Amino acid sequence: MTLVRTRLVALVAAALSTLLVLAVQPALAERGTPLSDAFAKAAAAHDVPRDLLVALGYAETHLDGHAGEPSASGGYGLMHLVDNPTNKTLSEAAALTGQPAATLKKDDAANILGAAAVLRSYADKLGLDEAARKDAGRWYKAVAEYGHASSPETARLYADAVYEMLGLGLQARGVTVEPQEVTADRGDLAKARDLNAQAAVASPDYPPAAWVAASSSNYRVSNRETSYNIDRIVIHVTQGSYAGTISWFQNPAAQVSAHYVVKSSNGAITQMVRDKDVGWHAGNSTYNNRSIGIEHEGWVNDASWFTDAMYRSSAALTRHLADKYGVPKNRTGIIGHNEVPGATHTDPGPHWNWTTYMNYVNGGTTNPPTWTTTVDNASSQFTASTNWGTSAYSSQRHGADYRFADPVAASDPAWYSAAIPSAGTYRIEVWYPSDPGYNSSAPYIVAAAGGNQTVYVDQRSGGGAWRSIGTFQLNAGTQNVVGVSRWTGGTGYVIADAVRISRI
């Protein structure tokens, strides 16, 4: 049995240095809503951990049923019950619950109940008894099975996304999951390649990305730019999750692919088709031949997926591709899928901010702040456990010193609090000294209005200056706003120095 502890929660130090005491941010009371009641009833009916069920739904759709419209891979409802040649969770749910497929597609409560029934059936196949079912960590392989991934590595990516939501906590559509510690039993999936890790196989064309090959049935081998010139970059939205899209492009039944896929929460990128080859993404053979397709995790009708981390990461990729292939860095060379001649798709849709995106592509900056505050690690607004040491080693530090800690399989974050004057959009910037011995993937947790969001920063470089990690919706009031977690697959000391929060 292989276990991994995931704890991405707010931790505060206790007086006893020999004991790590966990303390999450103040609990948020959840009043009964139709959706929260539906999760509670479905979890009780099938003896599935309620928070796990919510986290699975959030990882798939942000708890949005999209009025019964299907995802790119044929998934329906906020729990993404699927009907395609290799994934039949919709029909499984219908058989287990007696509900017709049409109801499961459009009715939120039925959809949640159906997903709980399917998940429980997978737990039964794994032999989880009543006691084991009470432990959310023991459901890991059942969650991975629910995603019907095309490979062990994408199965792990899918399940890890769900368990990350448990560790971070979430709030969406009147449903709350508090941050919590879970020991996940990955079983044999622990041996699968971790696509979130620094050690993931690098992209052959864009080294910051990971490489996962699409099925050879989903693209055409070519020799661009000898066979065709690349003069367009096409922006897409996946209509599904990051892990689900990667898995779908690995599936020979898909008959579609894009060159790159970008993750919503932290801007991680996976390349799936070589730049030289022709991806089947534009719905127009001429444009397929001449373009590179970039898919972005999310749904066109839900703005919550389009994070600043996604915009910045994708824009850096687009800028690299445009410079490499001579694509104009304007809206002639960089287009939406909906702008391809004959397109039947509407992505990236009305919530995609072209102004912000093109500004980032061309190296522009964000709007000037209307309010700002800086919190240094020496401030009374900074809290950290005794596991965090203090150093003045680097001259790149902000103020007199900074804090450091070893990475561990526990969050134990240092927290920066601030008095946010009003609800709105805020830019978060971080300051840290950089060093080759510092962390390659330091997790910064932002307590955003819609739930905690995590951005990973390579602290080996780029130090000694303010570095934006994105814009976020924050609630008004005095609260922990930014945390630096120790839970990371990166190597080297995790550094906590200073943060700057600005209303824009």
TrEMBL record:
Source organism superkingdom: Bacteria
Signal sequence annotation: 1-29
EC numbers for this chain: 3.5.1.28
Species annotation: Nonomuraea ferruginea
Reactions that this protein is recorded to catalyse: Hydrolyzes the link between N-acetylmuramoyl residues and L-amino acid residues in certain cell-wall glycopeptides
Name under which the protein is recorded: N-acetylmuramoyl-L-alanine amidase
UniProt-listed Gene3D superfamilies: 1.10.530.10, Galactose-binding domain-like (2.60.120.260), Peptidoglycan recognition protein-like (3.40.80.10)
MF-aspect GO terms: N-acetylmuramoyl-L-alanine amidase activity
InterPro entries membership: Amidase/PGRP_sf (IPR036505), Amidase_domain (IPR002502), CBD-like_Golvesin-Xly (IPR033803), Lysozyme-like_dom_sf (IPR023346), NAMLAA_amidase_2 (IPR051206)
Keywords: Cell wall biogenesis/degradation, Hydrolase, Signal
Domain N-acetylmuramoyl-L-alanine amidase stretches: 219-349
Enzyme class: hydrolase
